[in-house]
Design a protein that fits this description.
- The structure holds 2 protein chains of 2 kinds.
- Chain A contains 11 helices and 9 strands.
- By secondary structure, chain A is of the alpha/beta class.
- In chain A, the strands form 2 sheets. In chain A, strands 5-6-7-3-8-9 form a 6-stranded mixed beta sheet, with helices on both faces. In chain A, strands 2-1-4 form a 3-stranded antiparallel beta sheet, with helices on one face.
- Chain B is mostly helical.
- In chain B, helix 4 crosses helix 11 (197-238).
- Classes of the chains: A alpha/beta, B mainly alpha.
Chain lengths: 283, 310
């Protein structure tokens, strides 16, 4: 536990500073009139919002309310029917290819049997940037990869306190440890925007504390954090703003006002309207 | 044609290299390889074993065993039609194999039919078409070779095809190693990093089809899926690193193909069957004796865990 506290207290280091400048004034995420559906089931209806850079936004809403779907549209696994979505003023695909967005999925359908070590898993976060490496580096094994990639991986492993387990196969870890590795993979990208889909779901309290401490450091370093969560106390404590979603935007503002009893009641009323079978589409 | 000359030269060089290795073997094992057709069969076996071994890792990790089976069966009508038209058999084989895999994807995406049903449906339909066409042609030994494989009678055109398929497979997996690894491990993340996931998906399926077509004369339609599953499954039991898995899988593929070839000559049995049986033997060995994931190691750990501490 002492180790954990020292980790939380660790000051922001030089290495946390961003590789790319994102200081132009465009919003981190700007959505207007967005509609999306899984087959016949609409999940997002007329979503419009704007999230500023450098803030921690918690997305809160009922299961099947479209929280994860909104992130899915950003990372391209769900195509919108209508509407526009911009990241730092540019289309999401361009920003994803430029490595400006790091995404941590819920990992419900991951094959943990895959023969890969913790370190190599984190390294996959750098694969996008490796497109810009010279050809000869890309044709050689990891040992000869650009030192920038290796350094980013080691720092990210250290950030989530997984350096000791870096050589283990990913399948041998506990649920909380796997989440920490997946967070490390997102951090290794050193992207300006972190998109996190329930990073605290189903994990042990020490891992939860460690992840929250890591995210606080990232927030202090100037990164934008957009996080889908069910953890209301955590959102109250850490988020700069809260976005309430139930198919459409129910509200957006400071945590105190958005997570008040009356606002949550409005969100819950919306939830009872949704048919029961729809909860499965949240993934 | 420069390509043909290049292929012939490459075949000569590779054969010479293999014969140097054979020269190290005891006289009784090396003797059959004095014959030209045996040298050719050996080279084909090595190439098929290596290529199938490479692809096998992706097939096992992506759960594509049934897809591999489907493509290999769907190749039959293509072979029959090519035979009727007097084309090289692999042209027809590749076309119907590729069409079937695309058809499976289309059914899966646009209807409520699940992928395993789509595969079962498409490949049996294609295979039935092949059988009907063949029943109208007078029986041909060549078609029997396609069904069951006969590496001893491999033709030069088939050897050239196998060589080209091996080169394409090795180069593709080398050049696109990282996108392929990430797509196999975590397609969602590959998409999020801006990789063209559907291009990777169909590229891998085309590579699989090419490998199957190139392996037909060696192990045959019915058994080729074994070479696409067994080496990868064996390797998966033996390691927790993807690169090592590729290497082990290639080794198992090559060793099975060569040992199967030698056994089939020695015992005068079908080469395709002999190759697959040797591969299955390797799998059984790994299943029992793999250091971490083997049955014996698991029993041992359980016994150690339950042992009363004194």
């Amino acid at each position: 536990m002492e180790r954990l506290e020292s980790l939380m207290a660790r000051p922001t280091t030089e290495s946390l500073s961003m590789e790319r400048s994102t200081t132009d004034g465009a919003p981190a995420l700007e959505v207007s009139g967005l509609y999306a559906a899984y087959g016949q089931e609409p999940v997002l209806e007329d979503i419009s919002l704007s999230l500023p850079q450098g803030q921690w936004t918690a997305i809160v809403g009922p299961n099947g309310g479209g929280k994860s779907s909104l992130l899915s549209v950003v990372v391209g696994s769900l195509s919108p029917l209508r509407g526009e979505l911009k990241i730092l003023g540019r289309p999401p695909l361009a920003q994803r290819r430029a490595g400006n967005i790091a995404y941590m999925a819920q990992q419900e359908r991951m094959e943990w049997d895959f023969p890969i070590s913790v370190r190599d898993t984190v390294m996959t976060g750098r694969f996008g940037m490796m497109r810009h490496d010279p050809l000869w580096r890309r044709l050689l094994p990891r040992r000869w990869a650009n030192p920038v990639h290796r350094q980013a991986v080691e720092e990210a492993l250290d950030d989530v306190d997984m350096t000791d387990m870096a050589s283990r196969p990913i399948g041998q870890l506990s649920g909380g440890q796997k989440k920490r590795v997946m967070l490390a993979r997102a951090l290794a990208q050193r992207a300006g925007i972190l998109l996190l889909d329930e990073p605290l779901a189903g994990i042990d309290p020490p891992s939860e504390a460690l992840i929250m401490a890591t995210l606080q450091r990232q927030r202090r370093a100037g990164r934008t954090i957009i996080m889908v969560t069910h953890d209301l106390p955590g959102a109250r404590q850490h988020a700069d703003q809260v976005l309430l979603i139930n198919r459409t935007v129910v509200g957006m503002g400071a945590p105190e006002t958005m997570l008040s009893d009356s606002m949550l009641a409005r969100l819950a009323v919306g939830a009872t309207r949704t048919p029961a079978g729809e909860t499965s589409v949240a993934a | 044609m420069p390509l043909e000359a290049f292929a012939t030269n490459l075949i000569e060089t590779l054969t010479a290299g293999l014969m140097m290795v054979v020269g190290l073997l005891p006289e009784s094992l090396a003797a059959p390889f004095d014959y030209r057709f045996m040298q050719r069969a050996l080279l084909t076996s090595v190439l098929v074993g290596a290529t199938c071994g490479l692809l096998s890792c992706f097939v096992v990790l992506k759960r594509w065993s049934l897809l591999g089976d489907a493509i290999s069966h769907a190749v039959l009508p293509g072979v029959a039609i090519a035979y009727l038209l007097g084309w090289p058999f692999f042209v027809g084989a590749f076309v119907t194999g590729a069409l079937t895999s695309l058809g499976i994807g289309a059914i899966e995406r646009h209807t409520r039919i699940k992928s395993d049903a789509a595969m079962g449906l498409m490949f049996t339909a294609a295979f039935a078409l092949g059988i009907v066409i063949i029943s109208k042609i007078t029986t041909s030994t060549h078609l029997m070779h396609i069904l069951f494989g006969n590496v001893l009678g491999v033709q030069t055109s088939a050897l050239v095809l196998t060589l080209l398929a091996s080169l394409v497979a090795v180069l593709t997996i080398w050049l696109a190693y990282r996108p392929l690894l990430l797509y196999t491990f975590d397609p969602q993340q590959a998409q999020a990093l801006g990789f063209n996931v559907s291009a990777i998906h169909y590229g891998l399926i085309m590579l699989l089809t090419l490998t199957i077509v190139a392996s037909l004369e060696t192990v045959g339609i019915i058994l080729v899926v074994a070479m696409l599953v067994t080496p990868g499954a064996t390797a998966h039991l033996l390691t927790d690193r993807f690169g090592t898995m590729l290497a082990i899988s290639v080794a198992v593929g090559v060793l099975s193909a060569v040992a199967g070839l030698v056994l089939s000559v020695r015992l005068d049995v079908a080469s395709g069957g002999a190759i697959v049986l040797v591969a299955s033997g390797f799998f059984l060995l790994a299943l029992l004796a793999a250091p971490r994931h083997g049955l014996i190691a698991r029993r041992w750990r359980r016994w150690r865990f339950n042992r009363p501490t004194s």
